[in-house]
Design goal:
Elements (H helix, E strand, L loop, with lengths): L13 H9 L6 E2 L16 H13 L12 H12 L4 H4 L3 E7 H16 L5 E5 L3 H9 L4 E5 L1 E2 L4 E2 L1 H10 L5 E5 L12 H13 L3 E6 L8 H13 L4 E6 L11 E7 L3 H16 L8 H11 L1 H32 L15 E3 L4 H11 L1 E2 L5 E3 L8 H11 L1
Parallel strand pairs: 1-12, 3-4, 3-7, 7-8, 8-9
Antiparallel strand pairs: 2-10, 5-6, 9-10, 11-13
Helix pairs in contact: 2-11, 2-12, 3-11, 5-6, 5-10, 7-8, 11-12, 12-14, 13-14
The structure holds (2S)-2-hydroxybutanedioic acid (LMR).
(2S)-2-hydroxybutanedioic acid binds next to loops.
Enzyme class: transferase
Protein name: Aminotransferase
EC number: 2.6.1.-
């Protein structure tokens, strides 16, 4: 049975963490995976999370099964956060939300659901996109194509080409979009460009699937959530996967959600009944701890306030690291231009480093980045940045 099984390649992102963990160099730096580290190089445990956990421990609640679609208070809090409590899709009960095992789990639920009810559709992801998008939708049975997105010459979005590709897609194509903080490039669309994208997607009967894993890391919670709200206001169908891994620093708790917007409350009820079948046949029902923590924070005004402040702190520190990255490289590699790093949003920078340069960083300096040149700016800190800049300048 097993003799013909070939060795699978390492995961392009998590495989880097495996190699990093095996590296004995004490000065190693992991700029691969999208994880926020504080200035001491530690993954923070947020104060709002500590306080919510203290409240939960006091209750000593029994650990029963959650409903298939997750904790009701969590699903409600996610809807309010993602769509706005007073949005039409929430007040008219046209949106359904199911707790999911991280943002990845939410994407997989959406992909499996779509494979059951729109199997003839093909999926379109940005070129480039998060490495796992293609694999996830292919493993759900879809053909996955790219639409043009990043322009290496301008370091921005090739908007005209993207729009033209959308206009060319067959109706009912599934279009995966990054709601904010594009992963891996950090290049986002402008408000005006989104207006045109929403118009084309809606009028052509395409199915938008918004992935929002970094809400709050771009320009703020409200600002980063605007794209989802604007799509929701344009009417369904709409799929939204969101994650609290980064914004609550709850990576290992796997807390995310899938929301679907339908045309009516009655349709939404039928969708939820089918989504529950997808969940039940995959993992039955989600784990409870992370969902309890997020629901507690989002529904307790003081904790919610604290979360917003802590998230703003992470956002500001990343921006400071971007600025330091640019100015230090200007000193050490004046022939090269890195100002574009300041325009990028979220945790990542598509640095322009090529595969060979990334390989040299790893082999000569124990600095780990994704082969495409994506670096996680949120892993830079005041102690490691000089080493990183010197190393980058030496491989340019
Ligand atoms: C990333 O892009 O590095 C993160 O989303 C982590 C992951 O699961 O790949």
């Amino acid at each position: 049975l097993f003799s013909a099984i070939e060795m699978a390649p390492r995961d392009p992102i998590l495989g880097i963490t495996e190699a990093f963990n095996a590296d004995q160099n004490p000065a190693k730096v992991n700029l691969g995976v999208g994880v926020y580290y504080d200035d001491n190089g530690k993954v923070p445990l947020l104060e709002c999370v500590k306080k919510a956990e203290a409240l939960l421990i006091e209750k000593y609640a029994p650990r029963t099964y959650l409903p298939i679609e997750g904790l009701a208070a969590y699903d409600r809090a996610v809807q309010d956060l993602v769509f706005g409590a007073d949005s039409a899709v929430v007040t008219e009960k046209r949106a359904i939300t199911a707790q999911a095992i991280g943002g990845t789990g939410a994407l997989k639920l959406g992909a499996d659901f779509l494979q059951r009810f729109s199997p003839q559709s093909q999926v379109y992801i940005s070129d480039p996109s998060w490495e796992n998008h293609r694999a996830l939708f292919e493993s759900a049975g879809f053909t996955v194509n790219n639409y043009p997105y990043y322009d290496a010459n301008t370091r921005g979005v090739n908007f005209e080409a993207m729009l033209a590709a959308l206009k060319d897609m067959p109706s009912a194509s599934i279009v995966l979009l990054h709601a904010c903080c594009h992963n891996p490039t950090g290049a986002d669309l402008s408000t005006e460009q989104w207006t045109q994208i929403i118009e084309v997607i809606t009028s052509r009967g395409l199915i938008p699937f918004l992935d929002m894993a970094y809400q709050g890391f771009g320009d703020g919670i409200e600002a980063d959530g605007q794209v989802v709200r604007r799509f929701a206001a344009a009417g369904g169908p709409l799929f939204v996967s969101n994650s609290f891994s980064k914004s609550f620093s709850l990576y290992g708790e796997r807390v995310g959600a899938l929301s679907i917007v339908a045309a009516s409350a009655e349709e939404a009820g039928r969708i939820m009944s089918q989504l529950k079948r997808v969940i039940r046949t995959n993992y039955s029902n989600p784990p409870s701890h992370g969902g309890q923590v997020v629901a507690t924070v989002l529904s307790t005004p003081e904790l919610r306030q604290l979360w917003e402040e802590e998230l703003a702190g992470m956002r500001v520190r990343i921006r400071e690291m971007r600025a330091a990255f640019v100015s230090k490289l200007k000193e050490q590699a004046p022939a090269h231009q890195f100002d574009f790093v300041m325009q990028q949003r979220g945790m990542f920078s598509y640095s322009g480093l090529n595969k060979e340069q990334v390989g040299k960083l790893r082999e000569l300096h124990s600095i780990y980045a994704v082969d495409t040149g994506r670096i996680c700016v949120a892993a830079l800190n005041s102690k490691n940045i000089d080493k990183v800049i010197t190393a980058i300048a030496s491989v340019l």
